[in-house]
Design brief:
Structural class: alpha/beta
Oligomer: single chain
Strand order of the largest sheet: 6-7-8-3-9-10
Radius of gyration: 19 Å
Number of helices: 10
CATH topology of the largest domain: Rossmann fold
Number of strands: 10
Number of domains: 2
CATH superfamily of the largest domain: P-loop containing nucleotide triphosphate hydrolases
């Protein structure tokens, strides 16, 4: 069963082909990683999947709904949420308010109750605050519930952005380099969080530099080469693919189990 169906996706910027003929499927509760070097088209692909870019070719179907060319809010309404390579945090707000902002599509936005401050609205706000606090605890940020966002360390802000995305109650979560800039301990905590989210039924599409994390948490891995698919399969299949070893993991890299080139270092993989 496929939650996300991507078919023949393509995007050009002038004469530059950023994404070319990308097709794949993501099952509910699975982790599908996208890897490749700088310029491979990974972040462009996420922008196509989330409606930020309109594809020149192909389709994006989420839970049976063809969202191709639809505005971004339709993607969110269909159950898609994402984080960004560069943090998109409201630094003039508290950490809790950042997560509460992710709940906006589930809240009553009628003007009259807000103007009159009706009891039902106040009760809804308290529920929203409690749900946001629970999400912060879920991602390991309980200690930062009362903090301002601009007072939080970088690793905590990465988790905060994930908590805000989860506040939308997504079926599919796109994570753009969630472990970038983190130390090994923090990266392993992100690893555990991704596993937990997938176990809870949320599908994850992951773009990430950290190859250890990719190989440990992913069910499927898609490798891009100048915007086009080079290989797709299980982590073990991709790690053993000669084209991937030569192009991305290093033909002379260390040998892993079974003689396959092991992805032991952080991949230099950007947009």
């Amino acid at each position: 069963m496929s939650l996300l169906h991507v078919e023949g996706l393509g995007k050009r910027f002038g004469g530059v082909v950023a994404v070319d003929g990308v097709s794949f499927d993501v099952a509910p509760g699975s982790v599908h990683a996208v890897i490749g070097p700088n310029g491979a088209g990974k972040t462009t692909l996420l922008n196509l999947l989330s409606g930020i870019y309109v594809p020149d070719a192909g389709r994006v179907v989420l839970d049976g709904r063809d969202l191709t060319g639809q505005p971004v809010h339709r993607y969110a309404a269909a159950g898609l949420a994402r984080t960004f390579q560069n943090l998109q945090i409201f630094f003039n707000m508290s950490a809790l308010e950042n997560v509460m902002a992710g709940r906006h599509r589930h809240e009553n936005t009628a003007i009259l109750p807000a103007l009159l401050r009706l009891p039902a609205l106040r009760a809804a706000e308290e529920r929203c605050r409690a749900e946001a606090a629970a999400l912060m605890q879920r991602v390991g940020l309980a200690a930062w519930t009362g903090a301002r966002a601009d007072a939080m360390p970088y690793g905590a802000l990465k988790r905060l952005e994930i908590a805000r995305a989860l506040a939308t109650e997504p079926k599919l979560l796109l994570l753009d380099e969630p472990a970038a800039g983190l130390n090994e301990t923090e990266a392993r905590e992100i690893d555990a969080l991704i596993r937990e989210l997938a176990a809870g039924g949320i599908a994850v599409v992951l773009v990430e530099h950290n190859m250890r994390l990719v190989m440990e948490v992913s069910d499927r891995v898609l490798v891009l080469d100048h915007g086009a698919p080079l290989a797709e399969g299980t982590p073990a299949q991709v790690a053993c693919d000669p084209r991937v070893i030569e192009a991305y993991l290093g033909a002379e890299g260390e040998q892993g189990a079974g003689g396959a080139a092991a992805p032991t270092s952080t991949e230099a993989a950007g947009a």
